[in-house]
Amino acid sequence: MNEPHLANPETNPSFTKGLFCGEIREELVFPYPVLSAEERESLGLILGSFRSWAADTVDAAKHDHDGQFGPGVREGMAELGLMGLNIPEEYGGFGASAKVFNRVFGEIGATDGALAVYFGAHQSIGCKGITLFGTEAQKQKYLPRCASGELVAAFCLTEPGSGSDAQAMKATATPSADGTHYLLSGTKIWISNAGFAGLFTVFAKVPVEENGKKKNRVTAFIVDAKAPGVSLGKLEDKLGIKASDTRGVFFDNVKVPVEDRLGDVGHGFRIALEILNSGRLGLSAASARGTRRLMEEALRYAKQREQFGRPIGSFEMIQRKFATFAYETYALDSAWMLTADMVDRGGVDFSLETAACKIHGSELAFKAASEAMQVAGGIGYSKEFPYERGLRDARINLIFEGTNEILRALVALMGLQQPGERLRAMGKAFRNPLHSLGVIGGFLAGKAKKTVSTPEFKLVHPEFAGEAAQVAELVKDLGAAVERVLMKHGKDVIDKQFLQERMANASIDIYLSTAVLSRVTAALEHAPDSANTAWEVECARSFISTAYRRARRNIRGLTRHRDERLKWLAERALDSGELLPASPTD
Amino acid sequence: MKIAVCIKRTPDSESRFKVASSATGIDETGLKFDVDDFAGYAVEAALQANEKGGGGETVVIALGPDNVQEVLRKAMSMGADRAIHLKADSLPSDGLAVAKALSAELKDQGFDLILFGKQAFDTSAGVVGTATAELLGLPCVTAVSKLDVSAGQGTARRDLEGAGEMVSFPLPAVVTIDEGVARPRYPSLKGIMAAKKKPLESKPAQLGDARVTVQKMELPPERAAGRIIGEGAAAVPELIRLLQTEAKVL
Ligand SMILES: Cc1cc2nc3c(=O)[nH]c(=O)nc-3n(C[C@H](O)[C@H](O)[C@H](O)COP(=O)(O)OP(=O)(O)OC[C@H]3O[C@@H](n4cnc5c(N)ncnc54)[C@H](O)[C@@H]3O)c2cc1C
User: Fold this and answer.
1) How many helices (H) and strands (E) does chain A have?
2) What is the C-alpha separation between A505 and A517, in angstroms, rounded?
3) Structural element, H or E, at residue B116
4) pLDDT tens by residue, A405-419
5) Which of A36, A41, A42, A45 best tests the B interface by mutation, with the highest count of B CBs <10 A?
6) Distance from CA of residue A421 to its chain's centroid?
7) CB contacts, 8 Å: A52 with chain B
8) Chain A residues whose beta carbon lies within 8 Å of the beta carbon of residue B186
9) A83 touches chain B (CB under 8 A)
């Protein structure tokens, strides 16, 4: 049995957690990763095959209109072998690295958002648990059929009463008296791929007795979609990714053989988190590629559309949009690729980095879709052009695989764990912040001792010494501000989400800036004179100076803020049910 | 049936091309390369012929520097069984020199059929296939859009301007392939994995003397900008006059 391990904070170092301690763990982010020649060639072939096939087969606008995939689409994905892209070779898949997998994910996402969700729900989360935590027998039994596309997989975590608070799930799996199987009952909702699925990864609580007390422990199961007692709800009518099949899945005393329990009893929650940890990266890679694709559509339009006797692309308000999304997407590309390499390297805790990429990517792509629509003007609003679908499809990424609020809380609270421990007393409460969001106990006490030396980058190319110093300054200031916050609020910081949001945002900007420093250093070292490097340098400088200003503001806001006022406004509105005072005309 | 397909690595036809600073070729930086379009059709034709015939061997051959191994592996990921790389520092512009190296490799190997693309996208010369047939003393059918082979005999369709021509020929033979024969298949992930384990033999090319060399490459002259003569019906007489006297098209 494989223990949940990938993001194990006890053994594996994390770059972002280091930031909260005022440290730059440079060895985790340098040198910038490159694809091996062999990987690059395979990737080129895979992308080539996908593009040629998609050009003939995938009509994203029609899928959106019809709310379903056209004939041959799902079959084609299987025939190409894409359903097994990240399933290991020994189980009939391609065994792609995270770098290759996410690049392909991006391509699919930029082509058709619904198809990317089909692909991701299957592989990033649907059967990923078997790859990560399955026994040899489970892998042999299921993965080859998942890889061939014969079995489409889906991931069943969310319930009506349990979304962000996954621990609150009600589904139960009761062991049979003879110990041969479990009886699974419960309702899962919002399940992507439900209608296509042959296999569900389901999370449910198993009753156990620990020290004479009855407890319910979250546990993962592999469930045959055809098993008696499994039924499906009606298709959800959604804003976007319409061809993705989303439904409720109902389990009524479904017999699940003990051999199909995934991992140990009580490991389910960590298994779910780890699956989502790596799964999230696909969403950011798709956001990056989708932003590039839609903005390039807008670019073509801006060159050709004339108003006031000149192309609209010559107006600076339009140019500002292209420039912003050029450097922001450059940073996102830099970060997801660096993070994918952490996944491939192993032994690195990448949980906060994938969250950072997902948050930044999903918000960037949604804004980009809105700005691309703005560039297109009236036609941007029309269904004849891809902008409005892009806008609708991009919106889901802020909600699923952990809402951006939950992920910001995750980044902040996991980040606070080590400085909290350094300030002693904090220990346990932070060890599993999602687990204990509502029930955290423990104390925060003691004065902070400055043990950390001034953080600095030693591996950044000299041309970026100035930017490196700026980012290092942010790290130092974040570390110091975090200490002050902890000393002031102690364990109450758990409820200080105004602060958590700023910490998360600052650390995300610092991580992205670091990824940019790493990437542009590699470019300057390997191809100092190329035109492409010069272009990268411009993106890098623009991003870091923007991110620096944003992060500064967020860090300052950790100690100087008007949160009491914001809280008053929000609570006033919540109490009265009215958002604001009556308008002058009321 | 034992089929050889000679394939060339050429830049993607949708690229934007620049003349290199040497002024005798294109600037290759940033270009994407692939199996030449017609050669891709030829690979597909070979694979289908062997699938229909219930087996056989498809061997792909490419001549050039190490980077041609990429296109050989792509052809193997489509389904070719093995590959031969004839190593040369560069590809001569003299098609006959290339044909000599290919025929030296192909002779005495017992191929029933040797396929080429009808011409390569980058040079549009169409020399290598026919010259190889001549050097091997084999019958040659060019620009074939439909191919059937069985039991020592081949039939092919050639599309002419406004007509089709059906030809038959004995095997072994050399056939150059036009599009229309069958869309090249996309390499599947399985195919890409399998290709990594298929044999790729690399050996020096026995090139013939290159007697043709490119002296200069230039882009077509820029077209003069359009001219607006006037608007609406009032402009028509002037337009007609200019079309008659200046453009001389009426
Ligand atoms: C199209 C689609 C596909 C999906 N696919 C799947 C799937 O395949 N499998 C699966 O299991 N689930 C799936 N989901 C479910 C999705 O993951 C959940 O909707 C999501 O986790 C949020 O849960 P919820 O909807 O219950 O919202 P809630 O948890 O009720 O959240 C509502 C709002 O409150 C915020 N919030 C909640 N708690 C906190 C907190 N502690 N601090 C601050 N803010 C908070 C949230 O961020 C959100 O803004 C899918 C959803 C959709 C829409």
Assistant:
1) 18, 10
2) 18
3) strand B113-117
4) 999 999 999 999 888
5) A45
6) 27
7) 186
8) 48-50, 52-53, 80
9) no
Q: Is residue B84 part of a domain?
A: yes
For A211, the 3-state DSSP assignment is: coil
CATH label of the domain that carries residue B126: 3.40.50.620
pLDDT for res B223: 78
Cβ atoms < 10 Å from Cβ of A238: 16
Residue B80's domain comprises: 2-204
Fold for the domain defined by A33-148? Butyryl-Coa Dehydrogenase, subunit A; domain 1 (1.10.540)
Q: Which of B195, B182, B194 is nearest to B48 (CA)?
A: B182
| Assigned superfamily of A153-267 | Butyryl-CoA Dehydrogenase, subunit A, domain 2 (2.40.110.10)
Question: Could you tell me the distance, in angstroms and rounded to a whole number, from the CA of residue A140 to the centre of ligand 1?
Answer: 33
> Is CATH 1.20.140.10 the right assignment for the domain spanning A404-573?
yes
A494-498 long-range contacts, CB within 8 A, separation 24+: A494/A413, A494/A429, A494/A433, A494/A437, A494/A440, A497/A405, A497/A409, A498/A561, A498/A563, A498/A566, A498/A567
Rounded-to-integer distance, Cα A418 and Cα A408, Å: 17
Check if the beta carbon of residue B107 is closer than 8 Å to that of residue B136.
yes
A125 to chain B nearest CA, in Å? 20
- Give bridge partners of residue B82 from the DSSP assignment: B59
Q: What is the pLDDT of residues A376-402, one digit of tens each?
A: 999 999 999 999 999 999 999 999 999
Instruction: Dihedral sign for Cα A400, A402, A408, A411, please.
Output: negative
What are residue B162's phi and psi, to 5 degrees? 75, 5
Tell me if A190 CB under 6 Å of ligand 1. yes
| Cβ-Cβ contacts under 8 Å for A107 (sequence gap 6 or more) | A47, A50, A51, A289
DSSP H helical segments within A125-187, as ranges? Answer: 128-133, 136-148
- Please give the tally of structural domains in chain B: 1
Predicted ipTM of the assembly: 0.85
